[in-house]
Amino acid sequence: RCFHFCKLPGRVMGIRLLRFTSVVIIVLLLVAGALTALLPTIKDDKLPNSRREPKTQSQSALDSFTLIMQTYNRTDLLLKLLNHYQAIPHLHKVIVVWNNIGEKTPEEMWNSLGPHPVPVVFKVQTINRMRNRLQNFPDVETKAVLMMDDDTLVSAHDLAFAFSVWQQFPEHIVGFVPRKHISTPSGVYSYGSFELQNPGFGNGDQYSMVLIGAAFFHSGYLEDFQRQPEAVYALIDETQNCDDIAMNFLVAKHTGKPSGVFVKPVDIRNLEKDTNSGYSGMWHRAEHLLQRSYCVNKLVNIYDGMPLKYSNIMISQFGFPNYANHKNKM
Amino acid sequence: RCFHFCKLPGRVMGIRLLRFTSVVIIVLLLVAGALTALLPTIKDDKLPNSRREPKTQSQSALDSFTLIMQTYNRTDLLLKLLNHYQAIPHLHKVIVVWNNIGEKTPEEMWNSLGPHPVPVVFKVQTINRMRNRLQNFPDVETKAVLMMDDDTLVSAHDLAFAFSVWQQFPEHIVGFVPRKHISTPSGVYSYGSFELQNPGFGNGDQYSMVLIGAAFFHSGYLEDFQRQPEAVYALIDETQNCDDIAMNFLVAKHTGKPSGVFVKPVDIRNLEKDTNSGYSGMWHRAEHLLQRSYCVNKLVNIYDGMPLKYSNIMISQFGFPNYANHKNKM
């Protein structure tokens, strides 16, 4: 009989078998777990998005946007707008371009009133330039940029809808303020809005620009903007104007199509009158519109041609705010 | 001195020189003429289209469309509508799908009242089927089809604009009548319009179909429609309904995107009440809407999944009819 020695191999075999079986079971469980995680979610209809996920830095670069807001001499409006815009759906980060040279940013006060839904970065500038907001900020992590003037209030509904439209037209400037140029028999261009005559292509009016002071566009265009002819920067600095017209030229040239897609806003407001600073914005200068016509002609010179194209597409949100805003009296 | 002989060579030389010079001049003129003809027309802005060119068969296949209108028991409405539609800009040809089995078409009367702006072809049918209008008619020479019900009047302005929109979205059904499906916890789908609850993706409503009774779509889809499962034809024949829902399934499956783009009509009218025939259209049947819900579920079965996708894009024409229909109270 073989007690000690014989049992030992058996027990050893037994232990080895036990260990082996345990390892096999664990591996099988891990594999099963991995397979479950890889199962495709059923996505034939888009899943309802009724519950808001907490905003984190890990929001996909495609599903969120960066707000860039340049500010000069209207910090009260800036802070009022920041309270509104910091809570817009799909916002990833806010970049405040601080054109108040030599003045402290409100960063301390901002932090003391935290926490905030998203990070806000104050970019202190050294010269008060209109085109500061068009720098290629490394802070931008998203594909989309929302650019807003520091006196413009657009509702969250409008912004959420316009962002979804931008996602369908990512190479265009998708925004709320359409403008146009017209050509005249002399070959000189003029800049304006609905008050100018129609360009004459069938019924109705046309627009050839969407202003970037209330619009979404691809962050790649900020990079492109750094590679423009020097004369473009000189023009914008000379007029402290027209950076938006230049951007529309850039985009139109790049796409060969109309630069912008106009989304009709339900609720857009100008808060200029509400500021305590008394400062009321560049567009009140007497020469503002004449400058912009001047810029159009200069840019045609610089770019050796007129790249802007006309569009008459106006986009609204189906069934909002009125659930039957498309109904017809048939 | 050398009179006769010496002059002769000179004169001969002179004649040769004259001939040579003439030939050179003629060649130069021909070359100049050819160069002028080859000069590129300046096309940085689209040229105004204010003067209508006479409609010819040579209109580019991309710049014109074919109207397909199926008709049953409403010849008075048909003829009224033909007078209107025959003059729509960019129309290439009209195809009338004649579902009045055994009855003579009004072709003789039509010809006696000529000339007409475009050719009108009467396609006599042998069975009165709803899906007759979705045959792949060889008469269609254009990329675009405009399909209209024989009781629907849409203004020329709306049609011209919607055609221009289709040219920007050629793979979609671009039309004036949006509808949707909704899914329910039981997994059974329901068909309807604004009266149904929103599918729940953010604010406002969504549509997932654009009906083909007043819409532009690519003529290639008529070809695709011939290659659908037999069960689709059986369903349409069984209900004498739902051909348009089937077409939306087809397009959504093909593109992986929402099948339709909704253009909000300014002036769309239903002329049913104006007919002398007393016939008032299939949609008045009690079971019409229930049938359409039934069709949605059957088609999901046939296609083994729900391909329809939601959209909330509503397109209107900028600055028409009101030249400032986009103006905001800023």
Examine the coordinates and then state which fold CATH places here, giving the name of the CATH topology of chain A: Spore Coat Polysaccharide Biosynthesis Protein SpsA, Chain A
CATH class placement of chain A: Alpha Beta
Major protein interface: A-B, 54 and 54 residues
**Fourth-level CATH superfamily of chain A:** Spore Coat Polysaccharide Biosynthesis Protein SpsA, Chain A
Q: N-to-C SSE series of chain A?
A: HEHEHEEEHEEEEEHHHEEHE
> Strand sequence of the main sheet of chain A, in spatial order?
3-2-1-4-10-6-11-13
Q: What's the tally of helices of chain A?
A: 8
Beginning-to-end CA distance, first to last residue of chain A: 103 Å
- Return the average pLDDT of chain A rounded to an integer: 88
The percent range for helix content of chain A is 25-40%
**CATH-scheme architecture of chain A:** Alpha-Beta Complex
SS class of chain A: alpha/beta
Task: Provide the low-confidence segments of chain A as ranges.
Answer: 41-57
User: How much strand content do the residues of chain A show?
Assistant: 15-25%
